[in-house]
Amino acid sequence: LVRSLPGYDGVEVVYPYETGDAEESAGWMNELGLNWAAVNANIKKEPQFVPGALSRPSADIRRQAVDIVKEAKDFAVKVGAPLVTVCPLSDGYDNLFQIDYPKAWRRVIDSIGEAAAYRPEMPLFIEYKFSETRAHCLLDSVDRTLLALRDLQSQNVGVTIDFGHALYSQENPAQSIALVAESGFDYYLHTNDNDARFDWDLVSGTRHFLHYAEFLFYAIEYGYDKYFTTDASPRIFDMKGFFTRHSEISQGLYNLMEQLDRKAFRELMEKEDAIALMKLVNTEIYRLPGLDGE
What we know:
By secondary structure, the chain is of the alpha/beta class. The chain has helices at 22-32, 59-79, 101-117, 142-152, 163-168, 173-182, 209-221, 239-259, 262-271, 274-285; strands spanning 10-15, 35-41, 84-86, 92-93, 124-127, 136-137, 157-162, 187-191, 228-230.
């Protein structure tokens, strides 16, 4: 399917559920002519991880979760993937007075630190989300994730910024890119869309077109050089059509952002000339005719 889709030439695979023997996996990826975007370590599916993984009081459960991330790193090294990403969705709480906040935070930091220190040549990226599968995730925002990374003091850990997760956390996704980049950390991007109330994983640009344009604008500004990984779900839609439309809007809008006079945008931003910027957005992004004769 991936080979038949326009604009796709790589995949992010979920470890250990979408992977087999590393040599065999690398072989069929080469045979299909596909690249590795990332390896995603899943630490939420198994029953023991449903109430939490990296933050649990049980040292044995934490060990099992960290071991999956380490094994994902082993797999990534063997197949030649560029990075490992992990989203600790089950680490959080549902009720007040449910967990010991400082101890849970320290356990998350220590667990991530141990996983990061293993095979340090393979970078580890932490994906945040406000909620689901917990009512409130411990790593619920770009701010809190950066706080965790600063606490770690590790240079081989970055942030996975999922466009929809940023919206769901009431963030501006482009600003999230800027915040991570200006904080000195690396980042990896997931693309999709939602209504900012639930993580619907829709086609990018269907609900937040201008947010997506600005997201791509800042990715270009900061020289982003990894995959824009599609983290979207067709659900009721035709699968091939769904991913084709996603590629269409993503590639088209990316190309448009590359062609913009970004220097003009930046100069007006520096002046905070909101009216002139609105005109540029209307004419250069929305491609609307100007009405003031200029």
